[in-house]
Design goal:
single chain, 77 residues, mainly alpha
């Protein structure tokens, strides 16, 4: 798993890439078609929040559901 320590050791630009590489497959389990878009949305969050999502399946699931509501809102509006 990706740790806060490993993340802190990486340059800032690489940190988001590292998080994205872990988030994408996790999000793909729930929303394979939109995983790229949802990962991009989540990468705008703070790194510490993203680490929590990677450690908690339930919180990740909640965040994916939230992202889906946002995306559905933009599609129908």
């Amino acid at each position: 798993p990706l740790t806060a320590l490993a993340l802190a050791a990486a340059p800032p630009g690489v940190q988001k890439q590292m998080l994205g590489e872990k988030l994408f497959p996790a999000i793909s389990k729930y929303q394979p078609e939109l995983a790229g878009k949802i990962t991009g949305m989540m990468l705008e969050m703070d790194n510490s929040e993203l680490l929590i999502l990677l450690e908690s399946e339930q919180q990740l699931r909640n965040k994916v559901d939230e992202a889906m509501r946002v995306l559905e809102g933009t599609r129908t509006g």
